[in-house]
Specification:
Number of helices: 6
Structural class: mainly alpha
Length: 117
Amino acid sequence: MRLLPPILMAASGMLLLSSCGAGAHAGKGTASLLNETEKHRLYAAALAASDSPLDSQVFKGACQSIGIFDKTGQPNDNYMVFVTRHVDWGTSPEAEDFRRQINTKEKAEAYLHEHLR
């Protein structure tokens, strides 16, 4: 549950950016190679690894890899749908287990380093 406030803060910021016209369509990338669980794990790890996700290149890179940011590092049309699903995923037992695996910034960074394509 400690990740829920940063998730909601990031979602609010991205909603503000997209309402200002910053959203764009994502190009093809690695997102199509990832299943939903992998996408949620990468997003959760990117949040956990970043003190300020909206300013973090690690966070932006993870979001680009999962297909919710465009190539310029801005949220695209998939972002809000994904974040809504991520909040639901975040309340699952699977998410709780995963958060225990990445319970430090260093562990979250290591997960990203190992799993980002």
